[in-house]
Amino acid sequence: MKALVGNINRYALHDGPGIRTTVFLKGCTLHCPWCHNPELISPEPEIAFYLQRCISCGDCQAICPQKAICMESENRLDRRRCTGCGLCVESCPTGALVLTGREYELEELVELLLRDRLFYARSGGGVTLSGGEPTQQLLFISALLERLHREKIHTIIETNGLFSYEQFAAACLDHLNMIFFDLKYLDARQHQQMIGSSNTLILANLCRLLTSRAQDVVVRIPLIPGYTATAENIEQIGKFLRHQKARHFSLLPYHPYGLAKAAAVGMTPDQTLPTQAMDQSELLPWQEFFYELEMVTP
Ligand code: SF4
Ligand code: SF4
């Protein structure tokens, strides 16, 4: 059994309690314009090209068996020809080419994750599955979570909430300690307009999780200037969460890291997004609003 993994981040301190290893799985069902990990949206291996690191040596063009690299082209890659073989990445002397997406066998990944179990135990940490959208590789994460649970490793999933509840519950729920559930818009029209898909299933899944596991669910709300960070949207989300008796929330401040990564994988970054990260002080008005709703950050 294999999974396509975009990245593995050991000693992570911001993906749940304690010291954790975060596994970023490839493939996502949503297309948020502000995505922080656009290189993980595609369910296939993908080459990112960083022009500022390139010294124009031409080694990548010379080695590519598909003739997918053209030195004269600004984007450098013809992605329709590229098979993701990675030869150009190995030949590049400066790290200008990066391959995102490597297959892992289940036991290979388990072995890697268990290497840090002492850190997990001493810090109250564990393993976090992120993405992309981890439930896109449901069979694999089901087996992985079951293995980790058997090893008594604390587990978290970060999800966009777009999944079949029955399948998710059967595959994962018993082996998850916490669920970090992203909520972008409450209003169906805005969700459809900004993200290009309905939020009906997402909201239904969140309600079902809050009914059965409210103490383990952290609702995460990205604050994106020009998109989700409006008083109307946050107020609607706050009222909804209070009505559903949510216990934990987390506001995710905007940062612009996704812009460069989007360009590197051939997407057109949203030009309306700020190039500056949101300052911590900008979170305060939104946090105070949630404190009034008697909810707490985890
Ligand atoms: S990954 Fe392989 S096919 Fe794609 S550009 Fe690099 S060498 Fe060519
Ligand atoms: S091998 Fe790397 S540094 Fe050389 S031209 Fe290709 S991308 Fe640029």
Written account of the structure:
With 298 residues, the protein is α/β, with parallel strands linked by helices. The chain is 33% helix and 20% strand. It folds into two domains: 2-43 and 101-292, Alpha-Beta Barrel (TIM Barrel); 47-94, Alpha-Beta Plaits (2-Layer Sandwich). The chain has an eight-stranded mixed sheet. A two-stranded antiparallel sheet has the order 3-4. Helix 3 (106-114) packs across helix 5 (138-150). The longest helix is centred in the last third of the chain and has 14 residues, at 200-213. The two termini are 34 Å apart. The model has no long low-confidence stretch (mean pLDDT 94). The chain binds iron/sulfur cluster (SF4) (2 copies).
Q: Give the names of the bound compounds.
A: iron/sulfur cluster
Strand order of the largest sheet: 5-1-2-6-7-8-9-10
Give the name of the CATH architecture of the largest domain.
Alpha-Beta Barrel
Mean pLDDT: 94
